[in-house]
Amino acid sequence: MTRTWRPPVAWGLLVPGLAVLLFAYAAPMLWVLRMAFNRFIGGGGIEITFTVDSFADVFTDPYYLRVAWTTVKLGLLVSVVTVIVAYPLSLFLVRTTSRFRGLLTILAIAPMLVSSVARTYGWMVVLGNQGLLNSVLKGLGLTDTPVQLANQFSGVVIALVQIFLPYAVLAMTSGFGRLDDTLEQAAASLGAGRITRFLRVTLPLTLPGVLTGLLLVFVLSISAYVTPRLIGGGRVFVLASEIYDQATNQLNWPLAAALSLVLVVVFGVAVTVFGLLQRRVERWVSGR
Amino acid sequence: MRKEYPGAQAPAVDGVDLRVRQGEMLALLGPSGCGKTTTLRMVAGLVEPTAGTITVAGRDVTQVPVHRRGMGMVFQSFALLPHLSVAGNVAFGLDMRKLPAAEKKRRVAEILDRVQLGHLAQRRIGQLSGGQQQRVALARALVVDPSVLLLDEPLSALDAKLRESLRTEIREMQLSSGTTAVFVTHDQDEALSMADRVAVMDAGRVAQIGTPQEIYENPADVFVATFIGRANLLDGVLGTSGVDVPGLGTLPVTTSRPPGPVTALLRPQAVQLLDSPSSQGFAGNVRSASYTGDQITYRIDAAGHTFEVDTVATGAPLDRGAAVRIAWEPAAVKVLPPRNAT
Amino acid sequence: MNTLADRAARWSQRTLVTLIYVFLWLPILVVAVVSIDTSTFLRFPPQGFSLDPYRTVFSTPEFMTGLVSSLIIAAFTTVITLAVAICASLAFTRQSFRGSGAAQAFLTSPLLVPNIVLGLALLLLFSPLALNDTYTGLVLAHVVLCLPYAIRTISVSLSTVDVSGEDAARVLGASPWVTFRRVTLPLIRPGVIAGAVLSFLVSFDEAVVSLFLAGYNITPLPVTLLDHLETQAGPEVAALSVLLILFSLLAVLAVERALGLGRSLRTRS
């Protein structure tokens, strides 16, 4: 229904929100963009100018290239593994007729709201040299020397998969809406076996949800800071930890800003690529 | 009281000019999308007219915001507030008017008794049946002594049986309180049985306004004739001695219309079924019959036309194909502007 | 049909799902076990059982000042976020105006920006303005982070409420403000509660952006915890983590009861 309030009222209602965001979001983001083109003159000094020095540093120093590559690798690995782990769980939650379905869904999503610092701490305990995993392995006589997982890339991956699993489940269960039992039953009645049914019916129909989950986890993990810092134990360097270090320890703000822009670009590329993939998959699934 | 909206909201309501008399009930009747609800919401102040004025008892209220117009409105969905009790809903308008608590209590109790819901005052809205909710909505609108009572499809959310009994109830409440009322409906029976006058709307305009009888017996055009009741329509040309209809010859009529193409209207009740041996009227054959207990409606092919004919049921319906003759009083033929000429 | 294969498939699926749940809750359970351990450094299995770590939490001054800072920030953030989000959601759901879609996209877009970048951006702008290491700066930053969640939950509530109730109140003489307070607000209460709990939690648990803006004056609890984890991760840290986890789970239940967890967290409907 048409309302009697006119546009000025609408914009009036938006003023507080727009004001906060312009000041504490849009302005800082633009300021970062500008900062990347300033020159760092050592000891926390910054010359206001227009130079691409910081970008030159990022793209010529093999160290930063390696950090960028580690970040992308981490994003890819974590997103793929998370989605693989989340897939059976999401499928189960969408299909189950159990009366505990509500509870099971909460159990799968609730960890999302548990402090990520606290959860990372849990992984430190599990993966540490004298932690749960190594105790179990030693108890079973499988190994004598502790398996190095903490302070390692692999440990960071394991922890991030668990931390982002609820996000993936949330994205995938809402993307699996198209799944319809009757379709699989129809396929079965036509003589399709269990595996054919999965490959020809279930998988294509769930693909859009899978892509959404992949993208979400990818963008979350390339910007993760707490877990790589704690589990990585100062040995796993990613763009996020480098940005923090440059900004607060080296006080090289132009470089930190340039690294942030690199991260944002990786972010943007991922969103675009997944957007294109998603559209193609949607078209394929909807049969057009 | 006067309301005019020349060209308000171009597509929705276009040049509607209505005057509602003190104490009368006016029905806005039309198919969905004809602009009747928009008109009502403009009167309420919920929609702002693009142009035109709304006047209540000589006072121009067009610029008065909705909450200061002092009207009462019953919504199609009843729009009861689920977080308040029955009494809380009814008292809402009185709260807004800052009435003393005792006075408020008295008036709420009084109106709830009038709608026979006194015993349910403390119930939650969700615990009421559809009919009870409708009565609460009516009580809530009437308890504030509104200058005008507006009803937007007040019965369409209810089932058929309940609708009929609530029709009379609403009408009686309106008559006894003497409130001027405007109600919107797409149901012609509702409009004809409840309203003092009916305004038939079509595509944002008022096609005709008049008492139910005027509108039924002397529809202004083919749209009104077919929207209200059923009609046999015969296209022809008006000459000096009557309407020339192909196959039927010249039908004598009384009309003040100038000669030219016209559409003649013949209500199914006005057509009589004669015994076959008679030589009057036109010969035809029964095409189909529909029996509804107290009457039988035949469709009869005669002289190249198909007529709908209502007869009082006095036995088994005639067989399909049976030979009959039909006839009518010359005065029963009404002359309307030709179809498709607007 | 092949019932044996069916049953095997069902059981293998159940086992797999159970294992995934174990994986999901393992670190949380482990923290709980470690928190009642008597040893002073990280190890598993525990050496003995005691509630001393919990006593230590409450007698460690850093934890207590961190807790107070976090509570102050989260409380102010929640109140401001709710007020701003309610206004914005009313505009989005109750009016149609040019630019509505763009404004909505803008107000929810902080969700798409990596927190590490947002934190840096805020540090860079706020330190010349002397807003870092102040409650004003931290609360502003947290409002930006919480706004998308609150707008989401409140808009969902607003768009499911029947507008004709508001119309009815207005016809009966309620001014726009009275209509909002006596009709709209009671009807959208679940969404407002869910939005409040989520905002409080997002602010209370926020570590990365706070890390950039925290300083000598104000150190929110997650930042304190982060520092402690790097240096001395003993049972008292586990105890604190358990308390935080319990707090979060209570909040989850509150959101679930108010609006439904899935509906509240889904950023795109």
Automatic annotation (TrEMBL), chain A:
Membrane topology value: Multi-pass membrane protein
UniProt entry keywords in alphabetical sequence: Cell membrane, Membrane, Transmembrane, Transmembrane helix, Transport
Subcellular location(s) per record: Cell membrane
Database matches in CDD domains: TM_PBP2 (cd06261)
KW Transmembrane helix (keyword) present: yes
A family per Pfam: BPD_transp_1
Limits of the ABC transmembrane type-1 domain: 68-274
Membrane-crossing residue ranges in chain numbering: 74-94, 106-129, 149-170, 203-226, 255-277
Main location: membrane
Protein family: Belongs to the binding-protein-dependent transport system permease family. CysTW subfamily.
Protein name per its UniProtKB record: ABC transporter permease
Organism: Kineosporia mesophila
UniProtKB/TrEMBL annotation, chain C:
Cellular location(s): Cell inner membrane; Cell membrane
Residue ranges annotated for the ABC transmembrane type-1 domain, each copy included: 67-255
Superkingdom in the source lineage: Bacteria
CDD domains in alphabetical order: TM_PBP2 (cd06261)
Transmembrane spans: 16-36, 67-93, 105-129, 135-151, 191-218, 238-259
Membrane topology note: Multi-pass membrane protein
Cited PROSITE patterns: ABC_TM1 (PS50928)
Record keyword Cell membrane present: yes
Keywords, ordered alphabetically: Cell inner membrane, Cell membrane, Membrane, Transmembrane, Transmembrane helix, Transport
Family: Belongs to the binding-protein-dependent transport system permease family.
Name the UniProt record assigns to this protein: ABC transporter permease
